[in-house]
Amino acid sequence: GSIGGLGTPIGSPPNAVLPSYLDRTFNHSIGFGNWMLAGLPFVFVLIPVAWAYLVFVACPVRIPSKSATGGTGAREELRRWYAELGPVSRGEWGVMACFTLTVIGWVFREPVILLLDSQGMPDVAAYLKANVDDAAIAMIGGLLAFVWPVSVKARTYVMDWPTFKRMPWDILLLFGGGLCLAAGVQASGLDTALGKELAGVAGWPVWLIVLLCSTISVFVSEFTSNVAQANVFYPILGGVAASAGIDPMALLFPCCLSLSCAFMLPMGTPPNAIAFATGRVSMKRFAMTGIGLNFIGILIVLLLTLTVLPHIPGMRLK
Questions:
Q1: Residue 95: its pLDDT value, please?
Q2: pLDDT per residue as tens digits for the range 283-305
């Protein structure tokens, strides 16, 4: 869950915070498609590497076709559970349709705007750019769920108001509080002051600065809220980049990815907490296994930041 969520700007809380910070501070928009171009290579590389590390190095797994007593083995049990799921319901198809249309809107928003501008419709392109952002598309997708019918006769839809009221709205307060914290860091001048204090890194190689930022982000994230850390770190790294004379995205994006690469402790990310809550993994085993994944994530973030990020449109600020 932690790794796959890095492929899109809505996949994890730190991802969602970064576009807001860039828009407010640099008047810069990444775009859903550009984020995927930068984030998905990381996902495609880290998932097989993490799987190989866990299965062959840290926790060797052997799934027998049959149990030791001759009964149903793990593979047959998994097939039985899959069969019990049954066919996809109309409601599930409706959810898939609403989500798919929303993702299409996110991915093709900027290409459509560029196409309209190149085809002699700059006014329409300017209107869409100013009024239809990723948040607006998400709102349209949410409203669509309220009118997408599951059963016309029973007047049931993909989403209804009682279900809507049970949504975890406290998450919005967490995001809002984090944005206020980031604004306070900027308004007080703390980001500039810390950037000046760290001006000594200006003479360091870029790869070393990225490695330092990623390492700090990963291990601090083990003990703190990812959202709060993102809102504090982003303004500070913006100031460090200005002092060092390098592209802010060279620090901000790897920091964003690294915040979700804390695999050592249960409080590092929500998926960690869910896995630990099963009671099947001890704290010692969790930490000893996760620290290896931490360093693997740091190295892959460094590698892709130096090789992939500079070639992605919208991923450079200068």
A1: 92
A2: 888 888 889 999 999 999 999 99
Q: Are 213 and 237 in contact (CB under 8 A)?
A: yes
Which residue has better confidence, 139 or 274? Answer: 139
CA distance 286 to 149: 44
As a whole number of angstroms, the distance between CA 29 and CA 138 comes to: 16
The CA distance from 30 to 118, in Å, is 20
**216 burial via Cβ count (<10 Å: 0-12, 13-18, 19+):** middle
Distances 278 to 2, 80, 274, 289 between C-alpha atoms, Å: 17, 22, 7, 16
The pLDDT score that the predictor gives to residue 270 is 74
Answer for the pair 73, 67: CB distance below 8 angstroms, yes or no.
Answer: yes
Highest mean pLDDT among 26-35, 92-101, 279-288: 92-101
Residue 134: name the closest of 111, 169, 103, 113 by CA.
103
Burial class (CB in 10 A: 0-12, 13-18, 19+), 111: exposed
| Residue that is written with structure tokens 């309209």 in the block | 116
**Angle (CA) 193 194 200, round 5°:** 110
